[in-house]
Amino acid sequence: MMGNKLRHPLSKYLLEDRLPHSWCPGCGIGIALGSILRAIDKKVKEGAIDYNKLVLVTGIGCSARAAFYVRFDSAHTIHGRAIPFASGVKLANPSLTVLVFGGDGDIAGIGGNHLIHAARRNMDLLVFMITNFVYAMTGGQVAPTTPTGLYTTTTPKGNPERPLNAIKLVASQNPNYVARASATHPALIEQYTYKALNMEGFRFIEIISMCPEVFGRHIGFNDPVTLYKTLKSKSIVKDKPSLDESDYDWNHGWILGEYVLRRNPGYLTTLRRYEG
Amino acid sequence: MRKEFLAAGRGGQGILLLGHVLGHAVAKYTKFYVTVTESYDAETRGGDSKIDFIIADKPEELDYFKVRNSDVALFMYPEQLVKYERLVKDNAIVFIDNYFIKEVRANRKWLIKEAPYTQIAEEKIGTHVVANMIALGHIIKVTKLVPVEAIIKSIKEVVRKKWIYIDIKAFQKGLTL
Amino acid sequence: MRTEFITTNIAIAEGAIMAGMKFYAGYPITPASDLFEYLAERLPQAGGLTVQFEDEIASINAVIGASWAGAKSMTATSGPGFSLMVEGLGFAIITETPLVVVDIMRAGPSTGVPTKATQSDVYQVRFAPHGIYSIPVLIPWSAQEGFDLAIRAFNIAEALRTPVIILSDAVLAHAWEKVRIKDLTEIKVIDREMPQLKNKNSWLNQKSDLVPPMKVFGRGYGAKVESLIHDERGWYIPNNETYRKLVWRLVRKIEDKARFLWDSVTYLTEDSDYLVYAYGSVARPAYAAVKELRKESIRIGLFRPRTLWPFDYFNLKKASMKVKKVFVVENNEGKIFREVQRHLRGKEVIPLPLIDLEVPPPEDIVDSIREWL
């Protein structure tokens, strides 16, 4: 770096040589990644996490590009398979702090089965799912999370299907932590991440996010700010919401909050008990 | 040197275990090489159960896996005798459980050794399930394929713990036939 | 050294442990399940771990992840499961991840006959993932070779940073044989190179320019594992220069080493007029057939590759120099025949495709050969 050039406060975590990033202006993924890195930075500074033991695993999609930009170990794997790859990493070296970061299509669509089973195992992973309601990198096709009725390029008359509620799905497997945040509420992302980082077991944070280009524009929002404001107005923060409150649709919006928090032994702890 | 041994019976007659005990003894306690393949019907009981057992002094002699001209054979049940007798060569030593197999119709020059293995197992040991070990004892006594001690060690290493004593007893009973 | 009476499946498992395997992920499938079951008991005793995943897709990706976390890793499967692993295998290839996949061939296509063997996957294991690459495939003919080739497979994987396939089949899988379990003093174990930390930003700081040292996770390398086309740093750069450089290296690091990977055995070939080419389980009845024909004073020999890919044309050409005809006996419709014919241009090469769920018996091979003598 140049001598007196101002450095980004997260430059320890970001490969600045690879910036600018590929995300569109107004995209929420950068906000989410920044919030997560700030939480990690706090933990590193407290000595609770070793920087050299951090691994970020992603699949394929816009969100998955996060693996490009972090300076610590990362893997940009294949579509839907970030969770099993990350499971292998953690199982082979339990001293690593393994994070998974991906879009809703990647994590809950093509990778949905892996998501269920990792949650069921209470696998020691922290998984972030960026829900932007579409397949963005491929141009705005319908996603498992697309609210009913909305236009996408593969549902030109509106999405006839109901959206997947990943919070309920993951919670049904009784993992240790399930929360929903939003890129419109970066402080929540940072707060939940900070809490989940040093926990055992499977931790899942869904982050509602804005895709102004192939979601917002396609449904009639001509500028990112309007989409941002709309998503923000649809996000209601609640203390300890019930799982039934996690269902969402476009009209009623979604509840942000911590849906599940428990301290069961994680997979590795359980395994050690069995192996003796 | 290359010798073939075929053993066949109904599922549940312990043919596969017999193959294991014998194969383990040959592999671990003799200088010979051995190939054993098993075939059985999906049903655990009642279907065919067969082992193809080939022993040789050089590994290259163990070419084809299957028995085609068996030097020694064991038949525990009539159906399998009919089905597989074509795989047993003339002048082979053929062991028969004559408790089930009342007559050998095959018009072959075999040296037949027979005993009611299942009946002996039931009457002398107290359970029919060790008929296989009685037969094994009989085979070892006649063919001297492997030393008796090797079989006893093998039983101790292969068989589930609660069956070791009773299987050895049955094997030793077979040696007296 | 100790001697055991074990199946080829168990022998492969023991060989893998001897080579230093510490992680196994799998999904049940006939005829590979008992290899997994054996390891589930045995691998923890050797300081490793087995996990059953939700499918073969998860299994191979977990194996790739475990390898990046520093553990020598393996999975075993059969045709339908291998098909599901193909996507992950391509990922392992482009990320140059050392690992071993055991494909225990069963009769296909599709569910086929799960318990019976053919040799129908000989191209699938080499060419199934899309893209440009090469991948080593080893093929045992006995339980002993299952053990020996498992060690060799891990060594190749670690030395060349590549997935390696062990191609067994349903007959071999469950054949019980005498196996000499060598101990560590009798074998060579190769471990992957890792960059020296002081040079962590340069992948070219050691030995071969074809096999970069591996930036294993958790050691401060800032590894970039990348499924996209990438440069030395692991950065996605979609241009011809980067693409050609990467894929040519993926091909060349295997093909340039072919003469070290080739491992073929000949039997009774010194004076041969005819040569039988066979591999895996079928080479055994083929050898019996050769011996039968020799009894009739027909001068015939056997050529048997233990490395199926890269294809050993060099030793095959040598062995077939003076023969009149080459018979390719295989338990499929005549797959490797094409490869043999391609390399022995001008020579009469005859396909003997003997499809048999129980492995073609020697008499069938003898009869087929006799028709062409």
Question: If you had to describe this structure to a student in words, what would you say it looks like?
Answer:
With 276 residues, chain A is α/β, with parallel strands linked by helices. Chain A has helices spanning 29-46, 66-69, 82-92, 104-110, 112-121, 166-171, 186-197, 212-216, 224-234, 267-275; strands spanning 54-58, 73-76, 97-103, 126-131, 134-135, 141-142, 177-182, 203-208, 235-237, 254-261. Chain A has an eight-stranded mixed β-sheet with strand order 2-1-3-4-8-7-10-9, sandwiched between helices. In chain A, strands 5-6 form a two-stranded antiparallel sheet. Chain B is 40% helix and 27% strand. In chain B, β4, α2 and β5 form a beta-alpha-beta unit. With 373 residues, chain C is of the alpha/beta class. Chain C is built from 13 helices and 15 strands. The longest helix of chain C has 18 residues, at 143-160. Chain C is globular. Chains A and C meet through β2, α3 and α5 of A and β2, α3, α4 and β9 of C. β2 of chain B pairs antiparallel with β8 (176-181) of chain C.
Amino- and carboxy-terminal Cα gap of chain C: 45 Å
- Please outline the major beta sheet of chain C: 7 strands, mixed
Provide the structure class of chain C. alpha/beta
Helix content of chain B: 25-40%
CATH topology of chain B: Pyruvate-ferredoxin Oxidoreductase, domain 3
The average pLDDT of chain B is 93
Number of helices of chain C: 13
Gross geometry of chain C: globular
End-to-end CA span of chain B:
28 Å
Helix and strand pattern of chain C: EHEHEHEHEHEHEHEEHHEEHEEHEHEH
Count of runs of 4 or more consecutive helical residues of chain B: 6
Which strands sit side by side, in order, in the main sheet of chain C? Answer: 3-2-4-5-7-6-13
- For the record, the CATH architecture of chain B stands as 3-Layer(aba) Sandwich
Give the strand tally of chain C.
15
